[in-house]
Design brief:
Largest sheet of chain A: 9 strands, mixed
Largest sheet of chain B: 9 strands, mixed
CATH class of the largest domain in chain A: Alpha Beta
Number of strands of chain A: 11
CATH topology of the largest domain in chain A: Rossmann fold
Oligomer: heterodimer
Order of helices and strands of chain B: EHEEEHEEHEEEHEHEHEHEHH
Order of helices and strands of chain A: EHEHEHEEHEEHEHEHEHEHH
Helix content of chain B: 25-40%
Distance between the termini of chain B: 14 Å
Structural class of chain A: alpha/beta
Shape of chain B: elongated
Strand order of the largest sheet of chain B: 3-8-9-2-10-1-11-12-13
Largest interface: A-B, 60 and 62 residues
Number of domains of chain A: 2
Radius of gyration of chain A: 22 Å
């Protein structure tokens, strides 16, 4: 079972929910797909067992073969090549690794070399296997790292995989939820929170993912995010209160369920609810 | 025109809250929301006029004419993005297609054409000498960096004001952030005093430095963890980065934002604190 945790807006509590869900499970896998700003490892402080580089292919020119015909420059849709002094130069950061220039060059002047864009760390902390993707500073896209993180992860009903997604609703989020069996949307009770909840709601609906909402930082009184869920008939999985004690523990990168019975119960019942939802979904679709 | 860009690395630290307060405090006439993935500034900078809307075309997407396709697999073999789905009929998954047109090039029968694709919507609000440029990327789309560049271009070309522009950025350190850095004169980083916030702040500072940006740092919700706030101040001192102040956690700020107001529209402690952050930031930017 793969559970993706997402939110649209940043800072609503994706990592809080993901880390604590992974911890209350008997055994679990936690994958941090927020490769631009990964934070889960700060909570788990895992023992790193392995680390591997993630690289993409970029073109390399053999200037001796190049005649300066410009076909590569004209073909490249990403403006990653420009002619300077009659020879193309390559802008690595904007290259999408499509291989087009290599194909169109009539002189076969291009070869491809690996360029590292970041890394994947594998570690362990108690009952949780932890996978963290880290994008190098200055790199534009972490998609290859996310696909690497999500490839071949074993999941069973007893060992859920929790996917901590990046904020937003663009290609990187889509890549992160692609194989998820269930999506947990974390929302905060603000005008901004509701606006961005609506976006991820549309995203999971578009991709026909079963989902439910966790309302975080709940205060007394009206909760615009809750009203939105009621209006759209969206399942509310849990309410997490606005609690300075919780905020403090979380700001110090503590795993809250290890320090508080109350939150251990809250997250355990949240996990159970999600498992039931996934099981129901499986029966309805079988 | 000087451009102040507001970034944070981590999401939800208060970029938009601070941007909207700055716009109000300085009666800023030119501003943009470059968080095209999850824009929120329009919710708080109340415009009564309708924006001028325009479709945003990202890169073209491949389209396969099944009548002409001979299922030779060349497109599948050469596509680096796994965007072509083979089957009874070959078709392109438009979410995976990055628009490189390699498939069009390798197709022996000319069955593949590149077609324009709407990847978002741009909104330009203007009235008298005030201009606000924003956009919403279509769900699941790439090319957010290109859209950020478009949003700023529209802001600049509509602006009659030559003094100061404020740009609300997006979280993270990837393509939309890198695109927003281009042309900015200074970056204000809104840090949050949590271990995650500090870690993310360090990564966005490295990114801004990588592109040779002038940087200033402020802390939002500093009193949720005083020790961590001190760490941020110490970090700035050690790195020789100007520290322009701190804003307390304020439940009135949440209320103000939920009423569509900025924190300087109501009498509250965060509103008072943001004034001095604004003054220090503008001083640094203009001097």
């Amino acid at each position: 079972m793969k559970i993706a945790v997402l939110s649209g807006k940043g800072g609503t509590g994706k990592t809080l929910v993901s880390v604590n869900l992974a911890t209350v499970a008997k055994s679990s896998t936690y994958i941090d797909c927020d490769v631009e700003e990964p934070n889960g490892h700060l909570f788990f402080k895992p023992t790193i067992l392995a680390e591997k580089d993630v690289s993409v292919k970029i073109p390399k020119l053999n200037p001796k073969l190049c005649t300066g015909c410009r076909r590569c420059v004209d073909f490249c849709k990403f403006n990653a090549l420009a002619i300077i002094n009659n020879k193309p130069i390559i802008f690595d950061e904007v290259c999408h690794s499509c291989g087009g220039c290599v194909l169109v060059c009539p002189e076969k002047a291009f070869s491809e070399i690996d360029k590292s864009i970041g890394k994947v760390q594998m570690g362990k902390s108690g009952n949780v296997d932890i996978y963290t993707g880290i994008l190098n500073i200055g790199e534009a896209t972490g998609i290859p790292i996310i696909s690497n993180l999500l490839s071949n992860k074993q999941d069973t009903l007893d060992k859920p995989v929790i996917i901590d997604c990046p904020p937003g609703s663009s290609c990187i989020v889509m890549e992160s939820i692609k194989d998820a069996d269930y999506c947990v949307l974390v929302a905060e009770p603000t005008l901004f929170g509701v606006h961005n909840l609506n976006m991820v709601y549309e995203l999971v609906t578009l991709f026909k993912k079963p989902f439910g909402v966790v309302l975080n930082k709940c205060l007394d009184g009206d909760n615009p995010a809750e009203l939105f869920c009621i209006e759209k008939n969206i399942k509310i999985l849990a309410h997490i209160p606005f609690d300075p004690e919780l905020g403090k523990l979380n700001s110090e990168a503590n795993i809250v369920v290890k320090h508080s019975d109350k939150y251990h119960n809250l997250f355990s019942s949240l996990l159970e609810k999600i498992i039931t939802e996934v099981a129901n979904e499986a029966t309805t679709n079988s | 025109m000087k451009q102040l860009l507001i970034l944070s690395g981590k999401g939800g630290t208060g970029k938009t809250t601070i941007a909207s307060a700055f716009i109000k405090l300085g009666s800023i006439k030119t501003y943009a929301d470059c968080d095209v993935d999850a824009p929120n500034l329009h919710l708080i900078t109340k415009w009564e006029t309708e924006p001028q809307k325009a479709d945003y075309y990202g890169l073209q997407k491949a389209y396969i004419d099944k009548e002409v396709c001979i299922k030779c697999d060349q497109c599948v073999l050469n596509c680096r993005f796994g965007a072509i789905e083979a089957g009874d009929f070959y078709k392109v998954n438009t979410y995976s297609c990055e628009g490189c047109s390699v498939c069009e090039y390798v197709c022996p029968t000319g069955a593949i054409t590149m077609r324009p694709s709407v990847d978002g919507e741009m909104m330009l609000y203007s009235e008298k000498d005030e201009v606000f440029s924003t956009a919403q990327l279509k769900m699941g789309s790439g090319t957010s960096g290109l859209l950020v560049t478009e949003v700023k271009k529209r802001m600049k070309s509509a602006s009659t004001n030559t003094n100061l522009a404020i740009i609300d950025g997006s979280p993270g350190i990837g393509c939309p952030v890198i695109a927003s850095l281009n042309g900015a004169d200074m970056v204000l980083i809104v840090a949050e005093p949590s271990i995650s916030g500090i870690n993310d702040m360090e990564r966005i500072i490295l990114t801004a430095k990588h592109f040779d940006m002038k940087i200033a740092v402020c802390i939002n919700k500093y009193d949720i963890n005083l020790e961590n706030s001190q760490k941020i101040e110490d970090f700035c001192k050690a790195e020789n980065l100007p520290f322009v102040g701190k804003i307390p956690y304020d439940s009135n700020a949440v209320k103000a934002v939920n009423n569509g107001q900025t924190i300087v529209d109501v009498d509250c402690i965060s509103g008072t604190a943001v004034k001095s952050v604004y003054e220090k930031t503008i001083n640094l930017l203009l001097n």
